[in-house]
Every structure is written in structure tokens, then in C-alpha cells.
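Internal tracking record. Fields below are filled automatically when a chain is submitted to the structure queue. Please do not edit lines marked as system-generated. If the sequence contains nonstandard residues, flag them in the REMARKS field before resubmitting.
Queue: standard
Priority: normal
Entity type: single polypeptide chain
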Amino acid sequence: MTEQLDFGWVYDLNPLATFRMVTRLERLTEEAGHLDHKQHSILELREREGLFRYVVQRQFDPTATARGPRFFGSKPAMLKLTQIWQPSNWDGTRKYDTVGEISGMPVQIAGSGAVTPIGAGGTRYSVSLTVTSSARKVETAVAESLSRTVQAEHGFRVTWLQRQSHSGF
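SYSTEM-GENERATED OUTPUT FOLLOWS
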């Protein structure tokens, strides 16, 4: 059983600026507060030997989904996501792989993403996630929650960019 989630957005930034936006500590911290992520902690955010690692942990509450309360206990779990970004290509394209773990849940999250130049100065930011579990109801609830979160993160980025355009980002 598998749930596939695919997202793609275009930003009026070059790939380097888009990469910096999605990995910028101040924006990530503000986003977590805006989205009310509980126990949010950035465990790693650095480049080493050409690879950029972003590791974040936060409370994951599947009861926030429509199906959640029936399938999960009341104790919230912790979601840990790791992104490993490859060095950028000559054209600015930069790809990453991601894995996610949710404490106490029989679920695996894996995927990839990229920033890719399009047109004159624009960038497509794409994310693809696969949620797998031996329990179909767990898989569906986790996928629904992740989908809502990823869409909300994009909404926050748009708002953040609008504010930054006035300050010269």
C-alpha cells in the first residue's frame, strides 16, 4: 500500500535564491511558529563536503486529520524529516532526497525534491513524497496530514516572499 504526494510551485526567484529561501533558518523558524508546529526543533542545517543537510523534528498529531481520532491514541508522536541536498548543477538545478520517521507509527516516508530554473529568472520547486505503511488507515491519515502541511508551507513561503520583496530579499 502506498500514498503518492506530488507538488510543484513556481517562484520568481533564481534557483540559488529559491534554495536559500527553503533552507533559511529565520524563515523555517517563523514558518513553524506560523503553522503552530509544536516542539519544533531544527537539528541540523549545514553544508558539509558538498552536501547540504536539513534535519527537523516536530510534534506530529495525526488526530488533526479527519480520520485521526479513530485510529490513533491521544499521545502525539514526533516527526523527524531529513533532507540531503546535492550540490547545484551548472544551471542552478539542485536536487534532494528526503526521509521521514514518525515515532510509534508503522509508516515510512521517502521522497525527493528539486529547484529547477524555468524561463528568465524563475524556478520550479517540486516535492514528491511516498507514504507507505502496512496499515492502510495509518498511511492515508499520515498522507492527508502531510499534504495539508506541505500546502500550508507553500502558502507561508508566498506570504514571506511578499514581505521580503519590500525589504530586498
